[in-house]
Write a sequence for this structure.
């Protein structure tokens, strides 16, 4: 088992890992519609933001340039830890309209604690040569970012690849040729249903470096325990917002349930501050409440895993149970377990 | 409990003959890497000349070795293979029999090379590209592998260029992709299956961007030629192919036989350099091929026939085998405990067939040891043959 606990030394203090960075949609819309969670859910004092979106939203960028802080824009305390990625996910379909230096400048103006390097995501639909070009380009961007980084905030190199050799090779190459505080695996979302592939890629990254390892975009309920088991230090997720938008109620240990399937219930099964007080009807009518509950669900999943680990219980036994309800994720976990046993 | 059988792992004692063990095989089949080759000077001269011509000039040359069953065709081919395997400038593959057509010959050849060797060749090709496009200077396959593992070169920098160059060299882009995929642990088994013509599913091909199936003789010839061209590009002198039991093509239908011979002919035509094929074939089948398929037989041109052993050949053979197990360091103990007359009798009985000779020697030596005979005389041997 590769699960580990560490501390990240950040400009705003220490951050205990493993940790989830809830994705904020600030910059994607005129205002951030993520409900309050900092200060409400204790372990979620951090956020993942898209530096490019904020920079490209003129009025907001004007305000930030004129002295308004990002945290004021987000309506969160000033000590909220921010991981600013480059917005590379958008480059799947758009031309790269930034440079490593410009992105670093943006991240710096946003006072980000963790800075993700500019990257261009891969897709299985691309020709292999095109994906190789994108991998190459992301490495070049990362090295340029390393050259320009002034040392304020941690710099995570974004790494892409759809095979273990490429992941290992990229991390080793970056380790030799640049200075990074950690690595962030990208391009995972398009292949998220290929659990076997994902676990292989994560394991190859975990074995290639002892530094902080972040996985972009896979912090949902199902993936979270798998990532923890594989030794991932941090992850991010927007599943709580997207699920709420689809009236999907996340239940730790089970996954998501469409509310229309359980309409007859008065009370929901979760004892979180949202569900503990409100009836189903109220939650159904209140998208913010549903979003907040979904975040609590992610927090509960994380807490459970930590509890199992700290209390000395057998994590594999817990995960056997956790994944027993779904054949696909069960097979994925079994594969991960086998891969892990070959390592140890 | 029945006591009809007496089964023991106790070893026979051969010390009275100054031997550690019985050196003759109980089942006289050729060893994978034979150490002994004796007699048949005309055969070794002809093979040496054929092989040496290819090595010295790079021009393709082929030879058929004929001989009756048990006269040593397989042994001759395998012995030649073991000599060539030691060289690092050639690639050698043994095909036990031609199967149903050229695709089977190709399959067996690549299988004989093995997964690891093919993977090494892939790394060697990457190394040749890395030397050109990076500042590194990888030596051989392992040097390249460690440069990738250590992150001294970027895979994404050298792989597209390697595929491009290998496609140019081989004129077969799918082959190039399959070779390069031998270095990826996720796909190397699929690549290996494709390269050995075992067939893979469409989805597996798609993952490697391989568009064609390697499933007929024409594709087999194309893949073989591509492999040879890759090797020449890497600085190898060429490929040696040993096709044994060639007489089994006579079991094919006339149409399939003709197709197989045509494919081999095309292979020879497409590879005027860097290819040496040695065939082992029963003489009667080779006679038929000579008379019926000129286009093929003329391209081989040369034939050498294995002859039955002479008594001198036999003495030399027995001495060489016995020397392998002699206890005392002094060699040239000769043919003891066999007498010349006993060996002459064995030769006569076997009609010079080496397989039968070895079988008889093995059995008679065991019997002599059990009976604690000091010498294997003709009189004693007579009763045992």
């Amino acid at each position: 088992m590769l699960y580990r606990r560490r501390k990240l030394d950040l400009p705003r203090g220490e951050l205990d890992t493993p940790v989830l960075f809830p994705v904020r949609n600030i910059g994607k819309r005129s205002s951030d519609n993520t409900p309050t969670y900092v200060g409400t859910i204790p372990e979620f004092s951090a956020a993942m933001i898209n530096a490019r979106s904020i920079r490209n939203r003129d009025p907001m960028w004007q305000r930030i340039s004129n002295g308004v802080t990002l945290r004021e824009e987000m309506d969160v305390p000033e000590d909220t830890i921010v991981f600013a990625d480059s917005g590379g996910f958008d480059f799947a379909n758009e031309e790269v309209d930034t440079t490593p230096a410009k992105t670093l400048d943006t991240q710096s103006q946003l006072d980000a604690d963790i800075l993700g390097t500019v990257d261009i995501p891969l897709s299985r639909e691309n020709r292999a040569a095109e994906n190789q070009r994108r991998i190459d380009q992301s490495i070049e961007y990362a090295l340029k970012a390393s050259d320009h980084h002034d040392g304020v905030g941690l710099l995570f190199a974004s790494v892409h690849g759809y095979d273990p050799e490429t992941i290992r090779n990229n991390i080793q190459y970056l380790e030799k040729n640049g200075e990074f505080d950690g690595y962030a695996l990208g391009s995972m979302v398009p292949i998220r249903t290929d659990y076997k592939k994902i676990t292989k890629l994560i394991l190859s990254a975990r074995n290639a470096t002892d530094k902080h390892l972040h996985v972009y975009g896979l912090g949902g309920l199902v993936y979270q325990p798998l990532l923890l088991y594989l030794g991932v230090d941090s992850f991010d997720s927007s599943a709580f917002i997207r699920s709420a938008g689809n009236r999907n109620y996340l239940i730790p240990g089970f996954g998501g349930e469409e509310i229309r399937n359980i309409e007859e219930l008065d009370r929901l099964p979760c004892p979180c501050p949202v569900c503990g007080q409100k009836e189903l009807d109220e939650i159904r009518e209140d998208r913010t409440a549903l979003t907040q509950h979904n975040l609590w669900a992610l927090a509960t999943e994380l807490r459970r895993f930590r509890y199992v680990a700290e209390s000395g219980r057998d994590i594999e036994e817990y995960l056997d149970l956790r994944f027993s309800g779904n054949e696909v994720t069960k097979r994925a976990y079994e594969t991960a377990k086998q891969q892990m046993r070959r390592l140890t | 409990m029945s006591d009809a059988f007496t089964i023991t792992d106790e070893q026979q004692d051969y010390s009275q003959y100054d031997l550690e063990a019985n050196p003759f095989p109980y089942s006289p089949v050729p060893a994978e890497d034979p150490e002994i080759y004796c007699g048949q000077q005309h055969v070794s001269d002809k093979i040496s000349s054929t092989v040496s011509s290819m090595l010295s000039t790079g021009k393709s040359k082929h030879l058929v070795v004929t001989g009756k069953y048990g006269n040593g065709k397989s042994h001759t081919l395998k012995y030649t293979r073991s000599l060539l395997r030691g060289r690092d400038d050639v690639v050698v593959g043994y095909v036990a029999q031609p199967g149903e057509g050229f695709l089977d010959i190709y399959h067996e050849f690549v299988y004989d090379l093995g997964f690891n060797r093919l993977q090494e060749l892939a790394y060697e090709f990457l190394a040749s590209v890395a030397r050109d496009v990076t500042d590194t200077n990888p030596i051989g396959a392992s040097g390249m592998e460690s440069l990738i593992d250590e992150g001294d070169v970027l895979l994404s920098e050298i792989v597209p260029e390697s595929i491009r160059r290998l496609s140019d060299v081989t004129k077969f882009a799918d082959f190039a992709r399959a070779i390069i995929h031998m270095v990826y642990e996720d796909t190397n088994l699929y690549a290996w299956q494709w390269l050995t013509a075992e067939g893979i599913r469409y989805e597996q091909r798609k993952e490697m961007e391989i568009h064609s199936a390697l499933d007929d003789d024409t594709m087999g010839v194309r893949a073989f030629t591509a492999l040879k061209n890759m090797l020449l590009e890497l600085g190898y002198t060429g490929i040696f192919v040993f096709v044994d039991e060639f007489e089994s093509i006579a079991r094919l239908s006339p149409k399939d036989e003709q197709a197989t011979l045509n494919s081999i002919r095309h292979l020879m035509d497409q590879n005027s350099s860097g290819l040496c094929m040695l065939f082992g074939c029963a003489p009667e089948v080779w006679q038929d091929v000579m008379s019926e398929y000129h286009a093929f037989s003329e391209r081989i041109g040369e034939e050498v026939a294995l002859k039955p052993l002479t008594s001198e050949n036999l003495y030399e053979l027995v001495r060489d085998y016995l020397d392998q197990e002699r206890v005392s360091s002094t060699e040239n103990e000769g043919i003891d405990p066999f007498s010349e007359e006993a060996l002459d009798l064995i030769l006569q009985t076997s009609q010079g067939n080496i397989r039968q000779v070895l079988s008889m020697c093995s059995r008679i030596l065991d019997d002599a040891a059990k009976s604690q005979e000091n010498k294997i005389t003709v009189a004693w041997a007579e009763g045992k043959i």
